[in-house]
Structures are given as structure tokens and as C-alpha cells.
Amino acid sequence: MGAISLRSVEKTYAPGTKAAVKVIHGVNAEINDGEFIVIVGPSGCGKSTLLRMVAGLEEITGGDIAIGGRVVNNLEPAERDIAMVFQNYALYPHMTVYDNMAYGLKIAKVPKAQIDERVNKAAKILELSGLLDRKPRQLSGGQRQRVAMGRAIVRQPAVFLFDEPLSNLDAKLRAQTRIEIQKLHRELGITSLFVTHDQVEAMTLAQRMIVMNGGRMEQIGTPDEVYQRPATTFVAGFIGAPPMNLLQGTAQGREFLMAGTRLALPAAAPREGALTLGLRPEHAEVAHAETADDAVRWPLTVEVVETLGAERLVYGLLGAVPFTLRIDGTLPAPAPGSTVTLTARAERLHWFDGDGQRAA
Predict the structure, then answer these.
(1) Whose CB has fewer CB within 10 Å in the chain, the N or C terminal residue?
(2) Which domain holds residue 297?
(3) Stated pTM of the model
């Protein structure tokens, strides 16, 4: 069983000294057996440190980590029944693909017949069967990453740990390898923790995702939950490309005042006073002749238009506040300097308190 339990997990470097730095602040999460969890966040947020703590490559300084119901705080990596796939592949250049995949099993003195069976099965899953006699230098980046995954698969662990494994691949290979990882997880059903700074990887791979910021877990949930109901302004601004528009101001009845601009609201805010109003670029709509007479209307002064084929991104100003609008690529591009009238529905608005938490 590969269920993982993180209970008030903390990490402090140089604890008890003046140079002490706390980098992980009491992370709590329950990860089900067979679940694929993506840990996502910006550089320096603690996501790789958290993964390495699960792997046993970093000591924890508070809390407990359990794998399969067994607390592993004081166990060596080899005793935790995990297999790790790194960003840099870490293949032996003088060994063939077969030998790279089989090496850990040989060290563990697994019988040769069993090694052959496991390596050939993993190679078939990863479409490496015709490459087993090649050396790493004869492989593409995507093939090397599949060999690294194959080396993990043959171990038959309770948990897979992926530390930004796609970072060295180009955009096309990243997309292909994401699909392969999804297929692999469906076939093997092994509990997986996958670290990335790329929100596209997080949204496409995760059954649930953990969003990290400054060593803290901001939110855990399915990609839809995190995208549709971000728990904080950080999550709202980090998940989504382009990010959610976050407008700081004051709510008064069915009006929102920000930087000298007064916006009508389709419905009253959760409370009056200082709030942050969030609206995703695709959820603002261009008002047309058929737009209901009682709909709100916000004038957006267009500054720049990016044409991206299937869509256009319109960057402009609501009063003096920057705002991004996403429209269908088949619609005419508004001219820079022109004014576009926007409208928004109440159910598309997000409200956050002064501390960045979602307002009730």
C-alpha cells in the first residue's frame, strides 16, 4: 500500500542557531493509495524540499511522514519502498539501456530471469524495446527520460517520486511525455508525487494538486477545484495563464471603488469594505447589442493585443488599473487606443479579504 500521510511536516536548516531558516511550515496532507498528486509552485517555494523529505534525502525537523501506514522519519531511502525520477536523468553513460534499467535489481540480487521479465515489461510499456542495446548518448532527451522512468518502474515500489522530470525537454516532448506518464499511471496505479513549477503540467497530470508558496501549502484539491475556487490570491494569480485579474479596492453595496474608478457590480460583494476582486481573463465578456440592459458595463482602454491563433489576449486599463481580457481568435482584434465595453456575471467574480484569503 502506497498511501502517504504528511502530518505537520516542518523543515528548518541549522535549527537552534542564529542562522536557522525555516523552509517548510507545517504541511498536512493525506494522499490516497494509487493517487497521482502534483506539488506545484514557484522556484524556492519548498516543493522539491518536501519531495526529498518524503524520499528520505532531507531530514525532517518536525512532524511525521508515513508511507503505507508506517512512519518513515528515521528510515533510509532504500527502506522506504520508493523510486525517484530526477530532472537530469542520472543514467550511467557507459551502460546500455537494459543495464541502466536493470542495475538496481542486480545490486539487490534479484534473480536474472526476474530482472529480464521486469525490464522487458517496462521497456514494452515505455516503447523502449528496440533501444535496449543502445547507450544513453545514442538516445534523444525524451528517450533518456523514459529510460529513467523505466529504471523506477522495474523496482515495483509503493511510491513514485518525480522531481521536475520534464524540465530538460522541449515543449513538444514535454507534451508527449505528459501523455506517456498519464498512460503509465493508469496502467500501474502506483501512488505518485510529481513536483513541477509548470502549471500546465500540474493541471494536466494531477488527480489532486498541492499549491506551495513560501514553504506553506496554500491549497490542495483537484485541478478544477483549484482553478474554479482558488483559496487565496496567490493561488488565483499563480494558477491560470494568463493569471486571474486581481483588483484591489473597496466594496460599497453594488459598487466597487478602485484607484479612482467606480465599477458597477452584478451583485453585492460578500461584505463591504476593503476587498480584492478577482476575474479570470476568459470570464470577462465583451458587451454586445444583445447584452441585457441591466448588465454591468466596464470600459476597458486597449493598449496591446496578442494574437495566438485560437485566441486573442487584450491588455488594457480599467481606469488606471491593468486588466487582461481573453477573446476568441475569430473575433476582430480591437485597435490599441480604442475602448471595449466589458460585462461580467456575478458567479464569475471571486472575492478575497485583505489577508489574501477567499472571502466567505
Answers:
(1) C
(2) 242-352
(3) 0.90
